[in-house]
Amino acid sequence: MNERAKEDWKRDTTPFDRVQSVMRTAYDPMSAATVAEHALTSEQTARKHLRSLVEHGYVAETASPDSKGTLYQRASDSLALEQARRILDETDTETLSTRVLEMREELREYADRFGANSPDEAVRAHADIDTETLLEWRTTRRNLAFAEVALALSGVEDATGAAEAL
At the top level of its lineage, which domain of life is listed (predicted)? Predict the structure, then answer.
């Protein structure tokens, strides 16, 4: 990010917004100092906002491998909900239900083909499986999980909407 963009971002957003934005796009655990650097704020301010994000379930704390501090990463629950929302925004529930059934069938086919219930189990059993197939299997499992969360969320929204109509 160039200096002008940094200045604009800092002027147009709050430190909390910047910390949350950094965590939204972070794939690896980060220290408060690293978050602060990316969020253009002090470490103390970043730590304060990270604690708030932890309390609200958006961020998870984890121990540093060298045990010299706390690291922060995006909470898997918040990531799953965000992905589920995105799916619901882009897909109607009928299409999504059909796709869930298709993915479940794909997973059954992988299990039958490799004699294992998961990609990791297949690797441990030394199944003859290439890297690309392994990646596709894992991706299908992940996508199915997100799709099932989206369907569940859709059901909750439908029930809530019906209750509010009463």
Answer: Archaea
